[in-house]
Structures are given as structure tokens and as C-alpha cells.
Amino acid sequence: MKTIKNIFLLTAVAGLILSCGNNNGGKSGAMASSNAEKVYVAPGEHDEYYAFMSGGYSGNVTVYGLPSGRMFKEIPVFSQFPTSGYGYSEETKPMFNTSFGFVPWGDAHHPDISQTNGELDGRWLFINENNTPRIARISLATFETEEIIEIPHSAGNHASSFVTENTEYIVAGTRFAVPNPQRDMPISEMKGEFKGPLTFIAIDDSGHMKIDFQLNMPGFNYDLAHPGRNKSHGWFFFTSYNTEEANTLLEVNASQNDKDYIVAVNWQKLAEFVANGGGKKVPATYAHNVYDEKTHTATSTMMEGVTSIDPREVEGAVYYIPIPKSPHGCDVDPSGEYIIGSGKLSTDLSIYSFTKIQEAIANKDYEGDAYGIPVLNYENTLAGVVTQAGLGPLHTEFDGRGNAYTTFFISSEVVKWKLETWEVVDRQPTYYSVGHLMIPGGNSRTPDAKYLVAMNKITKDRYLPTGPELEHSAQLYDITGDKMELLYDFPTHGEPHYAAGIAASKIKDNVKKYYDLEENNHPYVAKSESETKVVRNGNEVHVYMTMIRSHFSPDNIEGIKVGDKVYFHITNLEQDFDVPHGFSMIGANTSELLIMPGQTKTSIWEPKREGVWPFYCTDFCSALHQEMQGYVRVSAKNSDTELKWSLDDE
Ligand code: RUQ
Ligand code: CUA
């Protein structure tokens, strides 16, 4: 076994060297100019698609336009973001509350857009956090993170988020098997003792997330997932690896078994079971953080208890299906009939038939069981195999025209093949070592398949060098013809594990332009300059401040003392699109705040030294932006300087 593994590694390295040395992705002459036209979006014109890219270890999401590859925005999600003050303002700090305390960073992986009847509806974007298991919901009206829920009992929340076709559920799968409940025990005794809970989070009409139940699976590593759709709606499929339950040197020890498993879960059955009082309430503590658009404030609630289901207690709900060699991706085609599993260490792709899976279940056509969970017969559930398609298959997307596109990490290519005939019809190199790929709507019943974006893990020589660290590269292909055509390269931020693309027309008319000041329910709002004031409460000072082009009110404050805790509650009075103002205070040890029209945000400042200290607006908002500043007089702790505030001496 070890020799086989080494041969595999050698091939991997050889493949990488080969592909990196083979830089002929650029086209020259007439071809290049016609490709340039295809990605050219003239000044002032709009892109056809939004692409929401996971930021991986940046913890955030970036928003791009396709085909231009222009980056429009970084949406802070799991990480503090000084650009806007997210995670620094008092209103947003609760978003990072967890049962482990304040966790202001995360590892974001798989964004997915909400669906109605199997089609992208453009309401919300969900994305998972791998490290401290969480899922976030982002509003696609405000492009702000509105909710984060922690997933208890889970570790390495990778098989997530993935939306069912009416946004009934999203999921969270445990990539690192762990004791459940957590306990102090020898690591070497993990076999049979650790668990791999799969969490089903219900989404209500306003998008709010609630943990409905956890399926307490055997302690394998659950890596990726996709919901059934169309005919397989009601089911969820997960890949698992390390069915060896190895606890050390997994690169060798988790590659021993010839086959690992896909898990097929009938979630409708489980939901019914729970709705009828099934499952067991078990202890759990997890944070649920919700941002309110009207108070502009997040609250964090520590939740207690989840419903846990033993997969063996619900007849007909949970099955394992064998799959060759440590699978990674698990993808479902638009018809819902085909489930594609990619064994990273296999050169073949196994495609399962939903119809055959149902037959095997009906006939109890089992090969055996794993911890009491039936294992369906491999051969009899298989629809077909794409043989020798490439090296290191990872992820597959679909065009809705009967074709599938699979990425191969080691041979560094995207391979196009036909569903049902399983023949490879095209292959194009990627630069280099592609991970995920994305076709807008590729995750739905109706892919919008004009472009394909390959998200590569290695950049090397694709751009001007920027020191040892390079942004990852993405490649845009035109997939409207028989052959894929490489159009364009563009850098991405962090590590875009996955992306979700959607026609711009489904979002852009619903995008919020500013917040209505009249609807601002922030407890410290000042809706006009006449409502501004400064209130002392012991050594706590609350400043109710406003900002409008091009001044703060008040802009002179006296009577602040060393040792005070000064809360600047600042409301942007503007009621117009794209007129944020910033606030920054000398010596403040958080970040500046960028405050949107109609919004209130709070910054805490603890003055350390006597003097007269300036604050200013950080966003060039008008011709007199440089004049948008103010002063705070700070006196000694025991001074009797009178508390007063003014604008233009009034
Ligand atoms: S991963 S390259 Cu989805 Cu995090 Cu596969
Ligand atoms: Cu307000 Cu610059």
C-alpha cells in the first residue's frame, strides 16, 4: 500500500511540474483580440453575472463581475474588516461570538445562493466556516452578513453550506471526526468512539437559520455534500473519507481502503421523524448571532441543546454507497438522476443513478453494513464510469445541455464529458492545479451556462510576481461551443474554494441604495442635528453624533477626561446612494468606521492622554471632505472641565 501511495505522489509531482512548465495558455493575434472582445465590458456598462467567491482563509467573500473579472466588493463575513469597521464597531462585534468566545476570523469555503423551485432566487448567499464551525447568511439586497450560526459537536465544517431546492435546509458536515459529546480520551482509541455528525439547518421565509437536527454518523470524515434536486429532491448526498478511522499520518493511513462511502440521506424522512417528536434532545451550547437591519445592531444568543438522531433508528433514511478511493467532490446533475463522486486517488469518476439507488434500497440490495448502516451494492447503484478522465478529480458542474465539467487537480485541467454516454469530449488545461469550478446556476435545475470559472490553487508565473505570496488565479472559459475556450485570467482574493454565480438581472434591481433614516431604530440614533447630545454616566460618555456633507455634529466636545470610556454613536444623515462617511479618532485602538446613509454605528475610544485630539471623516465624500473634522478636549482625570459640545459654537 505504501508503494502505491508513493507512486501516486510521484505522479502528482510530475504532473505539477509538467503543467507548470507548459505555459501556453495565452492566445496570440486574431484569436486573442476576439477573446478580448468577449470579456470586454465597456466603461459604464455592466457585467452579465455576479460571481460570489469564497475568500478561504481570508474569512470573507469577494464579489466579481463576469465576464470582466472585475472585483466589485469584499463582503466581510467571518473576519474583522477595517475597511468598513465590520467586527470593530460595537454593533457588529456580536457577530463573532461563539461558544469559544470572540472568534474574529474564519476559513470560508462554499458559498451557495438560495433557491426557489430549484432555481436561484437571488435572496441570500450562505457560506460555511471550516475552522470554528459556523454558517453565515448574507443578504443579496444589502450585501451584508446578517446572520451567523455556530454548529456544535462539529469539527472542520467543510461539507457545507449547500442549499436544497426550496431553501428548506442547508447542511454542515463534520470533516474531522471527534468525540460527541467532546470528552478527554486517548486519541489512539478513536476507532468506533469518534463521531461525524451531519447537521441540518432549517431556513425560514425570512432566511433565519435554526438547527433542526443532527444525524450522529459514524466517525468518518465527511468532506463535501450536495442536495438532491428535481427527482432526487428530498435527499442529500455527502462524501466521506478516512473510513479507516486513522488518527495519524492520514495521507497514508486514510488511503488504505479500496473504497470509502457516499452517504445518501433522506432528509425529508428525518425532518418528519423530528417533527413527530423523534430524536433525542442532547446538550449543546452554540451561538446564534443575528444582525437587525433596522437597529443596525447584531445580537448574540447562546443556544442550548440540539435534537440528535441515531442514523439506525429511522428505517429507510440513511445509506452508505461505496466509492473508490478517498472521494472529495459530490455533485448532483440538474435532473437529479446522477450523483457524481470524485475519488481523489482514482483516475475514474463514479456516477450513481438515483433510480438505481432507490431500487437497491427497495430490494435491500446490500453489500453489508458499517456500524449498522446498510451499505448498498456498488455495481448495482452505478450508472456509469468515466474512465481514465484525468488525475485527481475534484469537483463537477453542469451546463444543463447534457454535459458535465470536472476539475482534475493533478493533471491541471477541466474535462468536459457527456452524461449518459460517459465519454470525454474535451479537455482544457488550467494554470495551475484547479480546485473548484463554477458555472452560474450550475448548482440548480437550470444552469446558465455561458461561462465556466476555474479556481486554481497555484499561480506561479501567471501574473507579475508579488513576492513569495501570490493571489490565486482564476480562469474564465467560454463554454457555449463544443470546445471550451480559455478567455481570460484574473486574480482572486484569499483562497476561493468555491463560488456561486448568478445572472445580474436576478439581483441588481433589488439592491438597497441606502437605509431609510425614518426606519432607523438604533437605541442611540440622532435623526437630526437637533437630536445630537453628549451624556455622561459615571466614566462612560455617550456621544450622539451625526454626519452629513461636510461636517460632524457636534464637532467640538469638551469635558472628556482621561480614564473615560467614550462611545461615539454616529448616524449618517444622508439619504442618497453611495454617500458613506467615515469616522476615525486619533489613538483609537479599533478601526475606522464606514457608515452608510441612514445607518448608525458605534466606536469606543478610551483617551489615554490630556490634550485636544482630532477626529475626521475617512471617505472622500465631497469637495470639502478635508474640512470634515472635529476636536475632543481631554482633561485630567480629576479636572472639573465642564461637559459641553457644539457645532459652529451653537
Ligand atoms: S474544497 S478544492 Cu470545496 Cu474546501 Cu475542493
Ligand atoms: Cu464625509 Cu469625507
Automatic annotation (TrEMBL):
It is an enzyme of class 1 (oxidoreductase). Its EC number is 1.7.2.4. It is found in: Cell envelope. InterPro entries: Copper_CuA, Cupredoxin, N2O_reductase_N, Nitrous_oxide_Rdtase_Sec-dep, Nos_propeller, NosZ/Cyto_c_oxidase_sub2, WD40/YVTN_repeat-like_dom_sf. Its main location: other. It comes from the Bacteria. One of its GO terms (cellular component) is cell envelope. This is Sec-dependent nitrous-oxide reductase. It comes from Paucihalobacter ruber.
